[in-house]
Amino acid sequence: MKKKYFAILMTVIFGMAILLTSVAGCSYSKKWISQKGEDNSKAEVIEEREQLPPPPDITPPKEKGDEYDVIVVGGEPEGVAAAVSAAKNGAKVLLIDKHDGLGGLMTYGMLNTIDMSRGPKGELLTRGTFEEFFKGIGSVTSFDVERAKKVFLKLVKDQPNITLSLNTIFKEPIMEGDKIVGVVVEKDGKNIRYYGKRVIDATQDADVAAAGGAPYTIGAEDIGINRIQASTLVFKLKGINWSDLTRIIKEEKKIPGTYIDSTSANGFATITRNYKPTTEMLRLRGLNVGKQDDGTVLINALLIFGVNGLDPESKAKGMELAKAELPRIVEFLKKNIPGFENISLAGTAPELYVRETRHIKGYYTLSITDVVFNRDFEDRIAIGSYPVDVQATSPNDTGYVYGKPVQYAIPFRCIVPQKVENLLVVGRSASYSHLAAGSARTIPIGMAEGDAAGVAAVYSITKNKSYKEIMANMEDIKNIQSILVSQGAYLKPFKVENPAEKHWSFEGLKLVLTWGLVVPGYTNDYKFDQDISSISFYYLISNLVKQAIPEKADVVTGNVSELQKFIVREPITKKSAAQILLTYAGYKDEITANEGKLFELAHQKGLISDKAYDHMKDKKFVTWADTYDMALTLYRKLK
Predict the structure, then answer these.
(1) pLDDT value for 50
(2) Distance from the CA of 411 to the CA of which of 211, 241, 554, 555 falls in 20 to 30 A?
(3) Residue 557's domain spans which residues?
(4) Is the pTM of this model over 0.85?
């Protein structure tokens, strides 16, 4: 990343850090009432009893020749799921990967602690191929990497109509107009052309879709910020006795805020926050520790800033920087964490764990409000529930949790890219917003998408329909869902009744949440009735203008000196809030003449809605709910 990236981020991140202080005519049954949080304490999951049609037989006809029914590019977990799913339905499948084995991020990035999506009663939401994999690794949250490689390979080898081509590098798509008909790959130093009726892009960075002309954004570009989540180098330690560490954490309670089970431990942040790296481009956060079968452990904790995941040279430099820091980190852990006294470095992952690059633009982009407010979709292909965990993006922020859903659905349209026919995209680069990806990028959700992509690809072939035609026909969608359910997927329709959605300021809340300007945390605390500080109000409104209406950004930068008096840590009065709104809306010249009635003037100018006016008229200070609504009225005014 260029130095300019950090200069741009400084102001925005500081401001954000301040903010931290449908299916009609169906029968439903109540399933759960338990979501914690100030304004979400009575959220309910109401599950639909739906009758899907019998799963149709979609086995494609066997044809002579070298053409495949489905080509899957990428042996990531999502690609394995896609290939297995397509093969189960009779397709002739080619699975391509650049590595010498399968599992991608899990096995070569050594991300061995799984971010699970479970329902209200602990039930697994991402079933199908992921559940087969999960059982294969022993149904543990942290798994042995070598065992995982074998499980992935077995899943593929158990399907005789999958041709597996490892050490095979994707070079470019073969296009006929906007239609992808195959791929060019490099294997053993030679370029080879493979043709297929449908292609599934399961690469980490949606390389096939991007090369084919599908539009995309990068990082947080969609919310007006040049930022990308930090990468991580997973490293391996030996010398930890798991039984001793379990006793230290569970019985002796020597390490506050830390959890441990038979294979996984996480926390340790009260200790690691004291580590001082040699460069601001690195940070040691809390540890995720995953036990290996040989007694070693893998540590996911070392953040690397400024890595461009689309640039091999940038990734290589990031890895070199992290490796150089590891001896100091190991010594720090050895001296400061009980149970780590005898550790030594036993290696690192061969690749970086890159959290974010492209976000392909599909026919629907999953939003942060879809996730946090538990939205279901009629064309659902996967259900997730993981918290919206957006890792730090620079040395100037600590990462944010933008809420914890009960559960939400991902629509089929999210894996259908715009402008490229015959192609589906699964995994972290599917059509999610930057913030929604904080939850939806997790591997179990991506594997559920892979299952759906495999079925949809075969269905599209046998029915001779494009993905656009399938998206427009609910009969086709329900047939695909029926096949997925018959193969073990969990796709029950649902509704979640969330009290926050009934709040008078909800539309404003959705706006500021969409732009990442409020951080509800794990408890979904929207602070509706709490007074907002002047500094938080200033940065929320200012950053909204700069990010959401960049053509008006000069009204913020041009008035910094005049409004800096509001950057104070005390409750903001309605008069002061009105002055900020009037200034940004272009009524600066009228402020002096209306000094004693700025609140009324802002209301008259349409900058404060009738609802917010009535809520504030008898009060001195502004609440967060008032702020959400005022942000909405200002946004509409400037737009």
Answers:
(1) 77
(2) 211
(3) 529-638
(4) yes
